[in-house]
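Long-time lurker. I teach an intro course on protein structure, and each term I like to show students one example going from raw sequence to a predicted 3D structure in token notation. This year I'd like something fresh instead of my usual example. Would anyone be willing to generate the tokens for the chain below so I can use it in lecture? Attribution to the forum is fine with me.
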Amino acid sequence: MRSTTGNARTVAMDDDLILDSPGIAPQGSPTPLVTALKASAGQDVATFHFPGHNRGRAAPSSLAQLIGIRPFLHDLSTVPELDNLFAPKGPILEAQKQAAKLFGSSETWFLIGGTTCGNQAAILATCSPGDSLILPRNAHLSVFSAMVLSGALPKYIIPEYDSSWDFAGGITTSQVQCAIKELENEGRKAAAVFVTSPTYHGICSNLSKISQLCHSQKIPLIVDEAHGAHLGFHPQLPASALQQGADLAVQSTHKVLSSLTQSSMLHMSGTLVDRERICKCLQTLQSTSPSYLLLASLDAARAQLSENPEMIFSQALELSAEVRNLLKEIPGISVLEYQSFSSFPMIDPLRLTISLWQLGLSGYEANEILSRDYGVICELVDTRSIAYVINLGTSREHARRLVSAMKDLSATFLPVQRVEERAESTNCLPFVDSKICLSPREAFFARKKRVNIRHSIGEICGELICPYPPGIPVMIPGEIVTERALDYLLHVKMEGAVISGASDPLLSSMIVCGV
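-- Reply from a regular --
Happy to contribute to a lecture. Here you go:
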């Protein structure tokens, strides 16, 4: 079954797939990259290029049975009509321009390496070897790898901590100002300030004031906005990083918006950051064989948001508020509210962080029961809490299941009254007393040795170790291993956390720097 339009013909595949839009994406398309991908896949051409599955003709049967043939048909390489990610002139450039217009940036770049890639590019573009970078100590692990790559020297800010929840919030303007002043006293100036906002738990820093402070010193502000691609698109949501004056904002479009996992965007505003350096950094970090499915999904997610940007999150916000109010009525259940982190202007209303310690349950224990017995799957588990995300696809039936499961947990465990056994907390962050002996880059290239875990205290850490998620390192190469940090790691591992980065997954030994 074939139809002909011009020189391109549409082919029916084995699963009766019929494409009706041959040719190249027209100018002014609402989804330029999606349209171009559809057109290219619909051409009846003899293909002698990558990838090896050849538009699905040699697709592995096990995966084809799982996801069908369509993804393979559209999994194309860098053919001319699909544009070049590193020198865009066609549909990629147009898609990025439309994204920039929607999000309010001067320029937007599509990322196929996640926000990890964007964070690294932002730091590489602003920091040279020996430059100082002001950042929160609870930044994502991608930031620490960026310091290895760039040679930047960290100037850490210890974020505000709430012992009842046992996790950190954001950083304040006064903390940033203090860090800038301390560097000045050392005869140094920050090359950039890096802020994570919102945090994994939705806590937003006051970026407006921080950006004003940074810009008064001609210091660019980089914001890891991985969890905030939706911000600024409803009156009930916090303003976005760009709306608050950030120079670079990196967003995981795949988290709260609807692109495919691993796809993100990097937005730039203002003139403090060199655009050409950003481009060079992205070309250094990103694959030269980008997935056009990921790129097209960014275009599609942007178009979805563009259809009704001021109201698209209304139903999700209403559902989140309803669930929050129902959860607060359940005995033994606490829901994170603004009052717990009152130094910060707002908490993302689509993030529900729930504590069950009054039921005598750790976050890990409660999550095991909820996922196993009720089929309720969370986003993040901590020692004393569980975080859930309400997004565009959250159904009312699933929201009811969450509330019902929490009611059952309350009815089952509240009478047991194990609160006194589990009410203790760490009282401070595990890295509050950390000391830097080597820069991340120096530690990365230093000679290493393995020691017994208990003999590691006082040594210089040689590996980046963190519970994941959230991917916040407890130990960083170059820092002195402290008893507090070690005890925390062993504690969360015993509770059920997955430890990432440790060469010994049992944590019976550790790699340290042999200097």
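Some talking points for your students: The CA atoms of residues 253 and 264 lie 5 Å apart. Residues 396-413 form the longest helix (18 residues).
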